[in-house]
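In full, the data:

***
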Amino acid sequence: MEVTENDVKHSAKKDLNGCAMAVAAKRQFHATGMIVSPSVAYVVKHDKAIRFQLPTSVQKEIVSFDRGGGFASGTYQLNYPKKSQRIGARAERGLSSGSREPNKGKRRFYHVTTGIRAVIGGKKRD
C-alpha cells in the first residue's frame, strides 16, 4: 500500500479514521471506512471489516505522526493476523515452555506509549 504526500496533507493527527495511513488505505481499497490504531487496522467495506496487523515500520510512523512529526510517504504493507492472533483462536497463556505451573512471582514491566491516538478497546490516552 502506498502513502502519498497528498494522503499526508489530507490527514489528521491522533485520528483513528483520518490519519495518513487510513486516508491512503481507504483510497486504495475503495473502502467505506478505515480504523487505524497503533498496532491494528480495519478496512471496512459496506457491512464487513477485515483486520490487519501493522508491521513495526508502520507503528513507528504512526507514533511519529501523532506526536507532530511527519508520516513518511512510501510503500507499506498490511499483514494478515497470524493464526494464533485471529479472533476465536485458542490462547494458551500463563505457562512458560517446559513448565506446568503458571509464571508465579515474575514481574512484567510494560511501557505505555503516550501522546498518540487511542488504542482500540483501551483506555483513553493524553
